Amino acid sequence: MQGEHAIAYASRSLTETEKRYAQIEKEMLSIVFSATKFHRYIYGKEVKVYNDHKPLEQLFKKSLLSAPMRIRKMMIRLQWYDITVIYRKGKEMQVSDTLSRAFLQTENQHSEFDRQEDMINMLSVSIDKYAEIKSPTQTELSALHKVIIDGWPDTRSETPVEVRPYWDSRDQLSVLDGIIYKGLRLVIPPSLRGNMLELIHKSHLGMSKCKQRAREVMYWPCMNSDIDSMVINCTQCNEYQKQQPAEPLKPTPTPDLPYSFVGCDLFDFESKKYLLVVDYYSKYIDVAPLQFENAKAIIEALKPIFACHGIPVKLRSDNGPQFSSNEFKKFCASIGIESETASSKNSRKEPLGLS
What we know:
With 355 residues, this protein is an alpha/beta fold. It has 3 domains: 18-115, no CATH class; 117-240, Endonuclease III, domain 1 (Orthogonal Bundle), CATH 1.10.340; 261-353, Ribonuclease H-like superfamily/Ribonuclease H (Nucleotidyltransferase, domain 5). Helices cover 37% and strands 16% of the residues. The protein contains 15 helices and 11 strands. It has helices at residues 23-37, 39-42, 54-59, 69-77, 94-99, 116-120, 127-140, 142-150, 190-201, 207-215, 223-232, 235-240, 295-309, 321-324, 326-334; strands spanning 46-51, 82-87, 173-176, 179-182, 185-187, 218-219, 261-269, 272-279, 285-290, 314-318, 338-342. The strands form 3 sheets. It has a 5-stranded mixed sheet with strand order 9-8-7-10-11. Strands 3-4-5-6 form a 4-stranded mixed sheet. Strand 7 (261-269) and strand 8 (272-279) form a beta hairpin. It is elongated. The model is unreliable at 347-351 (pLDDT under 50).
């Protein structure tokens, strides 16, 4: 068409095989037929193709690998042309709809896009497993099969409830030999999903490898979350899974003078409480028994130690209530000590690794 005026048209009927194509495949076939027929008109030019099947517009925006097998072959045929597919409502396409009524009967009853044996050989599925999937697909996914063949409605709410989980993948779904495909992956019926999960997880490869293995061959809605649940609940996978690496130890720099930087902590020995004070310079240890485990008792125990060795510049302790109390902070401030605390839940950060 030039503007809104038809300068040439062509049409043909579908073969018996093509009549069994999914609606999106029929629409794609019409574009291939038109491009081939008017090759001399459109080759080397930018061409807009209007179509009333909305999923087809989205399909052309995705990569070639995400397309179903038969549609992928058609898209490869269209690589010669610089076409842009634009969705237009059917009621706005009066000219093409009217002219399509006067079609010519097709003499060649063979479709070049219907070589199933080539497509099946591209799958990593045995013949027995292929037949096993085919039987329940016809019974359990019959509603999805019908929607794919007849065409998807314009809105999600118009689709049957059991088909809505497949709405976001509608432009990648197709039917071949009684089996539903998403691209090159087989859509697994519900009754076989448990068995497929066991096969995927049989080697205990871990969450990422199991997902990668599944994505190469099969698909069903929420497949990733099902694999996550199986791996998380597997005791063997949990035992040998990769652990988070431990934080590297950050040693405290050695101070320049003795007893300028000390650390203190509490510990129990034979049901008695003790205060431990360590010099970061000499690693000299002082231990003082405690009658009570409170700030006042700790302050009284520190006074003779500081009187013997001198008052330090900095004192490190954990975030225990005795060391974080106002009474202990006032004591340190009164004699000019800088009080520093570290997490009590991480002994690697505490003074000399004490806990």
